[in-house]
Write a structure and sequence with these properties.
The complex is a heterodimer of chains A (429) and B (267). Chain A is an alpha+beta fold. Chain A is 36% helix and 26% strand. Chain A has 12 helices and 17 strands. In chain A, strand 15 and strand 16 form a beta hairpin. Chain A starts with 13 loop residues before the first helix and ends in a 12-residue tail after the last strand. Chain B is of the alpha/beta class and 267 residues long. Chain B has 14 helices and 7 strands. Chain B has a 7-stranded mixed β-sheet, with helices on both faces. The chains are: A alpha+beta (429), B alpha/beta (267).
Chain lengths: 429, 267
């Protein structure tokens, strides 16, 4: 506090202050004066609502003369129609049951036709034997407050509308995404004579289109094509790349089923599409054909890899090995690329397992610091040697689920197997 | 469906006595009958309930489709009667509930054997040759009042509104809770109530009926009481020396006496 030298110290001036004219006036401020000119409206009514006493402040707000009000009007006569109804259905019952009620928003009618928002509180005064005698009511000016509350209500309504709209938009978007996602993967795999197939796709984020893909399809009367891969990135751009990749491979296979040739065509298409776009995109893929021989029951497989993890050949006798395809380049990065081919023959009971790195890069262990890894997958596959592809895929699906939140990428699995001629028990593992 | 839980049904009084169903109107819940109850429990079996959307009913059972007409509320009454297998009960309805009782009796005549109508109104909005007391604009004002009051939207009321039947202690501490309703449900009940017109249904009442009106009632003026009395053949009209729309709270003795006399004469 800043004082000039002339002003007396407030502590020393107590005597002087209490004898000042202002303080004297305060002392003379009678209870009556306080009642009449209080900064809120006062009102006393009989239990039937008839107004017995009202202060000047409230009369001024109402624009009414005391004679016109006292003994002639009821409290509800001061209210707007909506307020009257609210009074009868909420205020009065609560007051009767509780003996008091506070802070109820109402509007009083002003003589000039205006309406004034107020907050009303009432308490019932009881007689010595407990019978209700009269109702005391205070009325606070709530004009500014009401304006503020209306802002809040408007804001809340707007927010509610926006939320509903956003939820509807989100639902629509998710429906659309689900349809698109479905279009990137085959509904069902085709029947292949002499070969059993199974696949599984794990979506890491329901609302983010994934970038893994696979397919199995007939090439001619004899051979079938298959592929599985992983495009870079996620979301709509990755989905577009997946779509382009999938249909390019299928078309290329019809033109020339040779695996290296099909991947070379894909490489050209992707490079042409994305290299100059300022958003270079690529994928890794295994593409191959299989050619069942009905006479021997064996299936010869020709495949090529563009930068994709090697497939696992699981033999009926329990051996499991990677089928190496080293040196194959990412598909779509360079104008011309070389891809590594490999061949194998599947005998009855053998199976070829294709996968994306979602499974091998799943985080495992305490604190999710380790990766599941290639060797663990190889061992897992060996453990399921001799099982038909659906059983192997189911076991792998359970494995994926066991990773919990350690599995944070999309994962595609495809198994192609030659059925064993008859059920048998494995003699050794 | 557990109707007793959905409608927060309370059964009290004397199990051998005739059943009296007390039905609250728009605004609060079955607590409105707390001053009526003592006069009945000695001789009658008393059933209290909350309409879905009011009091401690199961709010999840609410749907605007069902409760945008009085028939939906009448369905509540019929289902409560069926759940308790009531026959020939006396239906005491306050305000709009009196009309809901008439509709319910139309749907299941064997359930309701007499009506007590406390401050009833078959139509609140003025019409040609009929004075209900309100204009259509007045209803919009009421809806605005509902919206601007904390009884409807305070977060503190939410636990009660959501019907914590399994944790009643939450409700006991809250003052005003029995008049607090979810604003959306209150708006539907208000609209349904104040836009209703059940004048034609009154003629169908063929059981003993007591009409109670107040000398001064903003919601149901005396013309309305006279209209109801004239429309229901053989009904009895009693004008209570009471003001306001809730004589069972503002003049409980007179109200109880009128009800007791009527009930006694039924035997």
């Amino acid at each position: 506090m800043c004082r000039t030298g002339q002003q007396p110290d407030p502590h020393e001036a107590d005597d002087e202050k209490t004898s000042s004219p202002a303080f004297a006036a305060l002392l003379e401020d009678s209870a009556e004066e306080l009642y009449e000119s209080a900064p809120c409206g006062y009102l006393s009514t009989l239990m039937d609502g008839t107004i017995a006493k009202i202060n000047t402040t409230l009369l001024t707000w109402l624009g009414l003369e005391r004679e016109a009000v006292v003994g002639r009007m009821r409290f509800t006569d001061l209210l707007t129609v909506g307020g009257k109804m609210y009074h009868e259905t909420h205020f009065a019952p609560l007051l009767r049951m509780q003996g008091e009620i506070s802070g109820i928003a109402m509007e009083i009618k002003q003589a000039g036709g205006g309406r004034m928002p107020v907050l009303v509180s009432s308490v019932v005064k009881h007689g010595s034997t407990g019978e209700p005698l009269l109702i005391r009511t205070t009325v606070f000016d709530a004009r500014d407050r009401r304006a503020y509350e209306e802002e809040l209500l408007r804001g809340r309504k707007a927010a509610e509308e926006a939320r509903k709209q956003a939820e509807a938009d989100r639902a629509r978007l998710q429906d659309a995404l689900a349809v698109l996602q479905q279009s990137l993967l085959p509904d069902t795999l085709p029947e292949v004579p002499g070969v059993e197939t199974a696949a599984y796709y794990h979506t890491a984020h329901p609302d983010r289109l994934g970038g893994d893909f696979y397919d199995v399809f007939p090439i001619d009367g004899k051979r079938f094509g298959f592929f599985l891969g992983d495009v870079c990135g996620k979301g709509p751009q990755a989905a577009a790349l997946t779509s382009l990749t999938r249909y390019t491979l299928r078309a290329a296979a019809l033109h020339d089923p040779d695996p290296v040739s099909a991947l070379t065509t894909l490489n050209k298409v992707l490079h042409e599409r994305y290299a100059g776009s300022g958003d270079p995109r690529y994928c890794t893929a295994i593409y191959g054909t299989f050619d069942p021989d009905p006479d021997t029951g064996q299936v010869s497989v020709h495949l090529a890899s563009g930068g994709h993890p090697p497939v696992i050949a699981v033999r009926a006798d329990g051996a499991a090995d990677f089928l190496p395809t080293p040196g194959g380049l990412l598909v779509g990065i360079l104008p011309s690329a070389c891809f590594t081919a490999a061949t194998t023959v599947l005998a009855p009971g053998d199976m070829l397992l294709l996968y994306t790195d979602g499974i091998t890069e799943a985080r495992t262990g305490e604190g999710r610091t380790g990766l599941y890894g290639d060797e663990a997958l190889l061992a897992f596959a060996a453990d399921h040697a001799g099982k038909p592809p659906p059983a192997a895929i189911q076991a792998l699906t359970d494995l994926l689920h066991s990773f919990g939140d350690g599995l944070d990428d999309d994962t595609a699995l495809l198994a192609l197997g030659v059925p064993a001629p008859h059920p048998r028990t494995r003699s050794s593992r | 469906m557990d109707i007793a839980r959905r409608n927060n049904v309370t059964v009290t009084g004397t199990s051998q006595g005739r059943t009296v169903v007390l039905a609250h109107g728009f605004g609060c819940d079955q607590n409105m009958w707390r001053l009526t109850l003592p006069a009945l429990v000695e001789e009658y079996r008393v059933v209290l309930f909350d309409y879905v959307g009011s009091g401690r009913s199961d709010a999840t059972a609410f749907s605007e489709d069902r409760y945008d007409s009085l028939t939906g509320y009448a369905q509540d009454v019929v289902e409560v009667c069926e759940a308790l297998d009531l026959r020939d009960a006396v239906f005491v309805g306050h305000s709009v509930s009196a009309m809901i009782g008439v509709l319910a009796a139309g749907m299941a005549p064997e359930r309701i054997g007499a009506h007590v109508m406390v401050a009833p109104s078959p139509r609140y909005i003025d019409d040609e040759g009929y004075r209900g007391g309100f204009s259509a604009d007045d209803i919009d004002e009421l809806l605005a009042s509902l919206e601007s009051n904390y009884l409807g939207w305070s977060a503190a009321m939410a636990p009660v509104i959501m019907g914590n039947a399994d944790r009643p202690e939450l409700g006991e501490e809250l003052k005003n809770s029995f008049c607090a309703t979810d604003p959306d449900m209150a708006r539907v009940f208000a609209r349904t109530t104040f836009l209703s017109d059940s004048r034609d249904e009154l003629k169908s009442v063929g059981v003993p009926t007591l009409v109670l009106e107040c000398t001064q009632d903003v919601i149901a003026p005396r013309e309305v009481g006279a209209f109801v009395h004239q429309a229901i053949p053989g009904s009895t009209l009693v004008t209570l020396d009471a003001t306001g729309h809730c004589p069972h709270l503002s003049a409980p003795e007179a109200t109880n006496q009128a009800i007791i006399e009527f009930l006694a004469a039924l035997r």
